[in-house]
Design brief:
The protein is of the alpha/beta class and about 550 residues long. It has 21 helices and 17 strands. Among the domains are: about 130 residues, no CATH class; about 160 residues, Alpha-Beta Complex (2-enoyl-CoA Hydratase, Chain A, domain 1). The chain is about 45% helix and about 15% strand.
């Protein structure tokens, strides 16, 4: 959201008032939409809709009692108190640390929205905006009286008014964003203004700028790393996320490409596999050693494994609302033995050594096995701290003071030394060519699967759609993605259809989507009760 806000502000600054930024909306039904609209010089909202300048909330579901009721045992090792991703499995409510994190998120987002709206709509009077936030939902008429909205109107009417300009009788072409209205409309002349949408504009600007010529010169490569981090290669089932082997291959290609003079890593990830993060991080180190500057540009979330990767870069840039940090480790498993026994399913097995769990799905850890996992979690936590200390040129003690799983927004992360600059993609691009050749270089997506502008546009438009829930659940979003990663890789070991059907009965309809999402490619859906967090560990560890 902050990246979009910066882009709007940059556009307004560069156009010097010659290109007004007008917000035309069906409704402003979330605090984030009001926040973004406040950056425009004029706001038009549909008359019968509402304007919700509400506060910010965060909530989570907790499954401890549910799991216990159905005989599912959750075993978790976390380092440290603020690494709360697995709390929904082990708690009935927020822990003191979890509540502190949630409160930090909602207070930070609320203050950011209040400050922006006050600066642009209330003459800097934050008390007036605070009063509006306490009121919550407003009609459009009330929002006009309070200065949040300038007038009521419809998107179509505004577009036509814009195209006509001052001449009410002028013929004008129908906006391209309404293609069905073209029938019977006057034919558009070559230089007539148009109203279009982001996708159409991205396509046209790509053709106009001719970004990809056969003979290209030096450029800055933008490599997106988006989603949960995992080992291996991209799967054919369409699963999203960052596959370590694929990421390493792209980084190596950028290292070998003589036209790539610098790299911007666009990181938007809540974390994932520790070994995968480490593998990608070492590829970033090799890229830097080749003499090419690497700038980390953090998106909505670049925490845990996402931050592990960023810590290897020459420079880290985060937006004001980036959630980052989360230097910590959580590992665990789910044991379904008691639940399966209630369905008449038993298990038996043998193992060569006591350290091996005979049946990952059925059996809980023994005390000795749990101690072994705890030792490995401690080792991974210490390794994470050392990586950050080395990459950020901080002492281990200073990193420990901001680690323990704590999250930070961009400006706070800068204060504690985890981020170098509060900015966005534009700043990262500019810094990258300054550090490489000192001369302006174009920014291009690498590898070039589609136009850079189209990719950035998809990030922007996708962000707008996602923002419907983002401000009211930022910590829940981070927790949810991490928990999905925690549970997702754990659904891979039960192959028996009877057992799966039993689990469906207990877990209910919500399990169906997870079963399909994490099913094996051969048609037989799989569930892994053992939450194997890192593929090379029997017990599993995940830094989420």
């Amino acid at each position: 959201m902050d990246e979009i806000a910066r882009s709007i502000a940059h556009f307004a600054l560069k156009s010097k008032g010659t290109k007004p930024v007008v917000c035309v909306a069906e409704s402003l039904d979330t605090a984030s939409s009001v926040y973004l609209s406040s950056l425009g010089s004029h706001v038009v909202v549909q008359p019968s809709s509402s304007v919700n300048l509400t506060g910010v909330a965060s909530s989570s579901f907790f499954f401890k009692n549910f799991l216990e009721r159905h005989g599912i045992v959750a075993q978790v090792e976390q380092r440290k108190d603020y690494k709360t991703a697995a709390e929904p499995l082990t708690n009935e409510a927020y822990s003191a640390s979890g509540e502190e994190v949630a409160r930090y998120v909602v207070d930070k987002l609320s203050s950011a929205i209040k400050r922006s709206v006050a600066r642009s709509r209330a003459g800097g009077d934050e008390d007036a905006v605070e009063e509006m936030m306490r009121v919550g939902s407003m009609s459009v008429d009330e929002a006009i009286r309070r200065g949040i909205v300038h007038r009521a109107g419809y998107v179509q009417d505004f577009c036509m008014e814009y195209l006509r300009g001052d001449d009410d009788d002028a013929d004008c072409a129908v906006p391209l964003m309404y293609p069905k209205m073209k029938k019977g409309a006057p034919k558009r002349k070559k230089n007539d203004p148009i109203v279009t949408n982001m996708a159409m504009y991205a396509s046209k600007i790509h053709r106009t700028m001719k970004l990809y010529k056969k003979k290209r010169g030096p450029y800055v490569a933008m490599i997106p790393l988006e989603g949960t981090i995992r080992s291996g290669r991209s799967r054919r089932d369409g699963a999203s996320g960052i596959a370590a082997d694929d990421a390493v291959g792209v980084l190596h290609a950028a290292c070998e490409d003589p036209l790539v003079k610098a790299v911007v890593l666009r990181i938007d990830s809540p974390g994932g596999s520790a070994t995968a993060s480490e593998k990608i991080g070492q590829s970033v180190v090799r890229l830097r050693e080749s003499g090419k500057p690497v700038i980390a540009c953090l998106g909505n979330v670049a925490a845990s494994g996402g931050y592990w990767i960023a810590a290897h870069c020459d420079h880290i840039i985060a937006t004001y609302m980036t959630i980052t940090g989360s230097i910590g480790v959580v590992g665990g498993k789910l044991a379904f033995g008691k639940m399966l026994e209630s369905f008449g399913v038993t298990a038996d097995g043998v193992a060569s050594h006591d350290a091996v769990v005979r049946n990952q799905v059925y059996d809980a850890w023994t005390e000795a096995q749990r101690e072994s996992v705890a030792k490995r979690v401690d080792e991974m936590y210490d390794a994470f701290v050392r990586v950050v200390a080395e990459g950020r040129k901080m002492s281990v003690e200073d990193v420990e003071a901001v680690a323990g799983g704590r999250i930070f927004f961009g400006d706070d992360a800068k204060e504690v030394g985890l981020v170098d600059t509060v900015g966005g993609l534009y700043d990262a691009h500019q810094l990258a060519w300054n550090l490489s050749s000192g001369a302006p270089l174009p920014l291009r997506l690498f590898p070039p699967t589609k136009s850079t502008f189209a990719h950035i546009a998809s990030l922007v438009t996708g962000g707008i759609e996602h923002e419907q829930n983002y401000p009211t659940g930022a910590s829940a979003s981070l927790r949810g993605e991490a928990l999905d990663a925690f549970l997702g890789d754990s659904l891979s070991m039960i192959r028996d259809e009877t057992v799966r059907e039993a689990l469906r009965t207990v877990l209910g309809p919500s399990s169906a989507s997870m079963l399909e999402r994490h099913g094996s490619g051969g048609g037989a859906t799989s569930i892994d009760a053992a939450c194997a967090v890192s593929e090379d560990l029997d017990y599993g560890l995940r830094r989420s």
